[in-house]
Amino acid sequence: MKDRIIQALQYPRALIRGGVELHACSHGGNYHEQASDCADCHFEPECAWLFSHDEHIAFESKSVDDLTEALEFCYGYVDARATQLGHEVMSCGCDACRWLRDAGRLMNSLE
Questions:
Q1: Where are the domains of the chain?
Q2: Please, are residues 25 and 17 in contact by the beta-carbon 8 Å criterion?
Q3: CA–CA separation, 53 vs 96, rounded Å?
Q4: Would you tell me how many other CB atoms lie within 10 Å of the CB of residue 48?
Q5: 32-88 pLDDT, tens per residue?
Q6: How many other C-beta atoms are found inside a 10 Å radius of the C-beta of residue 103?
Q7: 3-state class of 31 per DSSP?
Q8: pTM (2 d.p.)
Q9: Residue 5 half-sphere exposure, CB side, CA atoms within 13 Å?
Q10: Which residues in 12-109 belong to E strands, given as ranges?
Q11: DSSP-H helix ranges across 30-63
């Protein structure tokens, strides 16, 4: 199950990384929990998530519960983006909507 969750996190990780604007980041996208500019940043949730779930993290050492939380965050992120773009998730064929359907089935199997 862990392998399925880890695999499922690849698409939203790339999407989140691509959605964070780093040109004005004084930390170069490296989240600092104690930094006031990180706390006030529009991209704080995404950067905080990436800090704990980017490719350099050893996912195999994380618990299924931790990975499930990461998947839930990603589901909310991708769903919000699809909703903003006016996608009909159940019928749309784009990568985001297909991922949402697959991730939804995976989360249901985790319950």
A1: 2-110
A2: no
A3: 19
A4: 17
A5: 888 888 888 888 898 888 888 877 777 778 899 999 999 999 999 999 999 999 999
A6: 21
A7: coil
A8: 0.86
A9: 23
A10: none
A11: 36-39, 44-53
